[in-house]
Amino acid sequence: MVKTSDSPTTQAIDEIPFNRFHLRVTVMTFGANFTDGYILGMIGALLPALTAGWSLTGLESGLLASSALIGLFFGSLVLGRVGDLIGRQRVFVLNFVIITVASVLQFWADGFLSLFILRLVIGFGLGADYAVGPTLLSEFSPRKSRGTMLSSLTVMWTVGYVVANILGSLFLAGEESWRLLLASGAIPALVVLAVRIGAPESPGWLISKGRVEEAQKIVGKYLKADISTADLATNSSPEDGGGFREVFASGQAKYTWFGIVFYSALVLPYFAIYTFMPTIFESLDVSGGHLQEIVLNIFLLLGGIAGLWFVQKLSRRSASIISFLILTASLILLGLLVDSSIGVLMIPFVVYTFVMSAASNLTQVYPAELFPTRLRATGVGLLNALSRIASAAGTFILPLMLSAWGISWSMFALALVLLVGLLFTIRYAPETSTKHLV
Q: What's the rounded Cα separation, in Å, for the pair 152 and 156?
């Protein structure tokens, strides 16, 4: 065992070298992101068939497309707070029971209402994981590896999203196939549930509740380190935090507001552009656009992988500022070049896609580092929930902008959102990469 009892707890738990359990808890967590990407990607691939088969109205199609996002909003908001009150581990396991069962039941959905409700439930369960998953992982992670471990979550979301799009395109043929494809979301969910059974509670959360001896046993059993109860007790604060009130209290509020603006400014243009990619290519007079979409999907994956290095090597603040700067410039350039050939247009599109995918890794890393242990799941859940409002707003507003303003001014408007994020980050972004989280 690693002997660390001569160091303060804040320097001990997250300085234990990376070991097999760190890898295990990372796999436990990023499986949820793969599942989320898969479930959201699959509904996008199947929505045209569902719309035609069930004669859905435009409103029903929109609600079905956003159903998991709506559920995710409420799941993040509600169960993030529950994770701070009762612990990470129970929420970490039970939410995937809900996701697995609801995913299977999609096979028997007989119309819009039943499928909408089931996907709300799935989204609710996934929302819990967006709050509790990164929180639990961050509290086990070695400080030096934390960026890579947390940013891997976004990479796996992208992999799940792309896999779902490919499967949906290849195997959609008739009603039974879309039922099987929808229900196939239960497969990754069941795998995640299986590997999570027996997962330990976060020692950081136990310490924050004064349950020092339990934390010591978990650190010894899973992290193979010997930390004295005296050291652990120095960070014991058994009183409950104030929840959402304390998240916006003096001293913490500036970090909360930064997280809200940072996260929302990144995801609003992202979801808007990639939800309506075929419409955008149509506005650019590109017939079909399938080849271009394949190229962008490839760069979406490459960007996510490159982002693992990006997050690990750069400070959080520098990585955020550089990302917002390049993304803003890319969309401005895209707006200016709308009358150019598709070859020229694809340059800013590819740059935006690559950098956006890399920068998205920060949305799994930064939020967990902005809050103290007693508020972490609540705060991360809040940021995720509000980012879903931004995502929904982007997907709602973009088609209206394209119709009223055209492609150029629509891109300029999305660039303005990123510019706000850039200015806010320059002014308020803290540096958290060296911060101890326990």
A: 6
Tokens matching residue 367: 């939020």
Asked if 426 and 280 count as a contact pair (C-beta separation under 8 A), the reply is no
Q: How far apart are CA 66 and CA 64, in angstroms?
A: 5
Q: Which residue has the tokens 């955020």?
A: 320
Q: What is the pLDDT of residues 267-310, one digit of tens each?
A: 999 888 877 777 787 777 776 557 887 888 889 889 989 999 98
pLDDT of 10: 41
3-state helix, strand, coil in the chain (%, to 5): 80, 0, 20
Closest CA to 380 of 83, 8, 53, 29: 83
| Alpha carbon distance 211, 199 (integer Å) | 17
CATH architecture of 2-233: Up-down Bundle (1.20)
Q: What does the DSSP assignment read for 32-54? A: HHHHHHHHHHHHHHHHHHHHHHH
Report the run of H or E that residue 254 belongs to, with start and end: helix 253-275
At 181-220, the pLDDT tens digits run 999 999 999 999 998 988 899 998 998 888 888 988 999 9
Q: Is 59 exposed, middle or buried (0-12, 13-18, 19+ CB in 10 A)?
A: exposed
Q: Any idea how long the chain is? A: 438
Where are the domains positioned within the chain?
2-233, 244-428
> pTM, whole model, 2 decimals?
0.84
DSSP assignment letter at 358: H
Nearest CA-CA partner of 229 in 211, 245, 243, 247? 211
Answer whether 382's CB lies under 8 Å from 328's CB.
Answer: no
User: C-alpha distances in angstroms, 22 versus 8, 92, 146, 150, 153?
Assistant: 21, 16, 10, 11, 14
- In terms of CATH architecture, what is 244-428? Up-down Bundle (1.20)
Q: What separation in angstroms does the CA of 265 have from each of 10, 251, 388, 390?
A: 32, 23, 11, 8
Q: What confidence category does residue 312 fall into, taking pLDDT thresholds of 50, 70 and 90?
A: confident
Element (H, E) at 3: strand 2-3
Query: Cβ contacts of residue 313 below 8 Å, gap of 6+?
Result: none
Give me the amino acid identity at 252: Q
Q: How many CB atoms lie within 10 A of CB 20?
A: 9
